[in-house]
Amino acid sequence: MLLTLGIAMFCVNSSPPKRPTMKEVVALLMEVKEFTCRMGENFTTFNEEIIYS
Length: 53
Prior knowledge:
By secondary structure, the protein is mainly α. It has helices spanning 2-11, 22-52. The two termini are 14 Å apart.
């Protein structure tokens, strides 16, 4: 979730030329998805416990 939030922060940069293209955003989100899949359910559960506790 924090990785996704980081991507969102790039998207709302006050300088439009510094914002990523949609193609770049999709690529970054795919990397986040692959990363979380590689880490497995334990990683996701652990992160959610930290964020929502």
